[in-house]
Amino acid sequence: MVQLKTNLDLVNECDNFPYPDIPFAQCLPSESYFKFKLEGCIAALGYVLPEVAQKLSSSPEWERNNASLELTFKPSNTPSDPKEAAAHRTAVLARHLQNVREAKTFRILDGWRNELYPVYGPGRELLFSMERSASALFGIVTYGVHMTAYTRNAEGMKLWTPRRAPTKQTYPNMMDNTVAGGLSTGERPFECLVRESMEEASLPEDIVRTAHACGTMTYFYVRDERAGGEVGLCQPECQYVYDLELPESVVPQPGDDEAVDFQLLTVKEVQSAMAAGRFKPNCALLLIEFFVRHGIITAENEPDYLEIVSRLHRRLEFPMGQV
Amino acid sequence: MVQLKTNLDLVNECDNFPYPDIPFAQCLPSESYFKFKLEGCIAALGYVLPEVAQKLSSSPEWERNNASLELTFKPSNTPSDPKEAAAHRTAVLARHLQNVREAKTFRILDGWRNELYPVYGPGRELLFSMERSASALFGIVTYGVHMTAYTRNAEGMKLWTPRRAPTKQTYPNMMDNTVAGGLSTGERPFECLVRESMEEASLPEDIVRTAHACGTMTYFYVRDERAGGEVGLCQPECQYVYDLELPESVVPQPGDDEAVDFQLLTVKEVQSAMAAGRFKPNCALLLIEFFVRHGIITAENEPDYLEIVSRLHRRLEFPMGQV
């Protein structure tokens, strides 16, 4: 007999880094993490597990301070021009991470992507970029797009819901949002959405351009076994959220090896699958946000409404930026 | 020449209680406030200005601790049954506030409403209720409903926008949201919306019941001169947000003395009035939330998009509840 999850359970599975008034049993207290810093920049850019900080700080461009719990990246000979400085830091970091990868120090780098993710400073300036698969080692904020495509007729609303391929490195076989993807350095959210919609769901550009932006969803995820790689790594995330109402004649189709198929499910069917834990955790969170926005989850039917809506928009304690 | 306000300026005017990384010049640091507590309950229920704590603690059912900065309400002979306890606390507090009102200790109590607002505990239980006009003295969370009524045709979207009467105690002559109202103890959000829509805008019940819930907006407001009463009082607020698309034939009309008229304005006209500072601060915030949700404010046209969306959903540090 499976214990059904409430919507707040689903939020707690994805936004599971401690708050001042909410500890999470499976997670270290927030003050136990090393702050990931860049020399000359006052802000913490991410949180690093103590054993990860230990292993990362073996080369001279790193300084680990066990008293202040800071892991500081200090590449030498950084140019003064901001753009050149960012390129220099990116190159030094890439060499370091390539060495770490070859030494097989961290399992999470087995999922090497050859894709660069941006790291922003307090003035929202691009400080440098980092190989995507390393982002959780440093606990930096990552950015993505998530879109829900749905149909609506007299019988109600239905959502296009893919099943992840059994061969995916992360969360194989779980249910997913219609389209989702990560934002590389320099990529604009809407353009990323258009590209991913074609790649993942074979949705034509002219249709996807009718999608509308609905805000962002932010949460602070601490990785568990299902995510693969080391457990306890920090993953604060910001998702740009889009809705796309489709005519019933448009049917998403897998365009790459991400999904095995797309099912058109009623709201009830989606909610049952969420409660049964069949959705990838952050996709369940996005669906909660969608249902709140569309008046399906309301104060009248959800006792945790107030807590849930704030938790979907967590203010992250790191600088954030956008292209 | 008026300095135009950005959307982030408007957010900063309404969500202006300090964050760990954002001080606000016109506001005390958060650690300077007294915590409003109830004997036997661990959570702070609100924040109280030091001079207000001083004046409130003159009678025996109050204890002021200047070392721990706590103002604790400890009515004697509280019954053990939770409902009876709540009624007892409410009555003791009402007597105290009536005395304070008659002594003319606080200007804000000149706006006495004879309306009770709920105060919830950490288990979301109703602890007691408090006269509405006193809520900012104790800095408790207050709850309300806000609805945007709009029309949509080939030319685009227009919003129904009232102007507040020049006789209003607070924010006279400023622009407002179509319908807004506070939630008294025991009142359900949607029923409050139906009642207020008739009272304020003469909108018939059958039409208002087609409105849809879109989530909540939470922010922490520190009162300034325009709010009336003492400056620097804390007002953490939670607004239940609703959208109502109206046919062009339905025209809201003032039903009481809240508004002088309703204007049907284009998105551009509303945004210009916001930038000119013509909207009541929390109404500007609600409109920003509406424009984000409807894809009018996007990552592509708003440099502060990420900051704004989180700030519209601040997680308040006090227990919150709902009926």
From TrEMBL, chains A, B:
This is Nudix hydrolase domain-containing protein. Gene3D superfamilies: Nucleoside Triphosphate Pyrophosphohydrolase. Residues 142-287 form the Nudix hydrolase domain. CDD domains: NUDIX_Tnr3_like. InterPro entries: DUF4743 (IPR031804), NUDIX_hydrolase-like_dom_sf (IPR015797), NUDIX_hydrolase_dom (IPR000086). It comes from Knufia fluminis. GO terms for molecular function: 8-oxo-dGDP phosphatase activity. Coiled coil: none annotated.
